[in-house]
Amino acid sequence: MSDAASGQGPKQQADAVVDVAAMKRELDEKQDRLLRALAEMDNMRRRAQRDREEFTRYATESLLRDLIPIIDNFDRALEAARGNSEAAKVVEGISLIQRELLRVLERAGVKRYSALGQPFDPTRHEATASVESADAKPNTVVAEMLPGYLLHDRVLRAAQVAVAVAPDEDAA
């Protein structure tokens, strides 16, 4: 078909080719923006899902934090009752209650942990005393006043501990 037959001259054909190229660029840009928007939506969906899972996992944190002092009181009562030979039945009853409460807490994701013998870690331990010790390495937990508790992998309450320090050489 000739230019005359198609009704277009060389200038009009060149303009049409330029228009097609511009439309192709515009289409490519819009497709790129669409793909980016879809990726952003997918990222937002994943973030929202992760936030929901974390909220669900730690929703009971406040309640559980309030229950931990009850366990501490059980520990103190058991310690006092063990020193009294006539209190054997009381000790047994308190022990049963304590075990049941600890099972309930474990089902909720709470784990009790001990710090004895471990290096002091300020994220898991609260130092309430320092003890001079020739036997233990400095900065090692040598006594535990209260155990620590984790909710899944998050510290619910740090263990209250005494930490070893090197003996004072000048005092000898």
Query: What count of helical segments does DSSP give?
Result: 4
CATH class of the largest domain: Mainly Beta
Query: What string gives the helices and strands in order?
Result: HHHHEEEEEE
Largest pleated sheet? 3 strands, antiparallel
Brief summary:
This protein has four helices and six strands; from the N terminus they run H-H-H-H-E-E-E-E-E-E.
Summarize the topology.
Blueprint: H1 3-6, H2 10-58, H3 61-82, H4 88-107, E1 110-113, E2 125-132, E3 141-146, E4 148-151, E5 154-157, E6 159-165
Parallel strand pairs: 2-6
Antiparallel strand pairs: 1-4, 3-6, 4-5
Helix pairs in contact: 3-4
What can you see in these coordinates?
It is a single chain. The chain has four helices and six strands. A hairpin with a 2-residue loop joins strand 4 and strand 5. The chain is elongated. It folds into three domains: 11-58; 60-108; 110-172, Head domain of nucleotide exchange factor GrpE (Nucleotide Exchange Factor Grpe, Chain A, domain 2), CATH 2.30.22. The longest helix is centred in the first third of the chain and has 49 residues, at 10-58. The model has no long low-confidence stretch (mean pLDDT 87). The strands form two sheets. It has a three-stranded antiparallel sheet with strand order 1-4-5. By secondary structure, the protein is of the alpha+beta class. The chain has helices spanning 3-6, 10-58, 61-82, 88-107; strands spanning 110-113, 125-132, 141-146, 148-151, 154-157, 159-165.
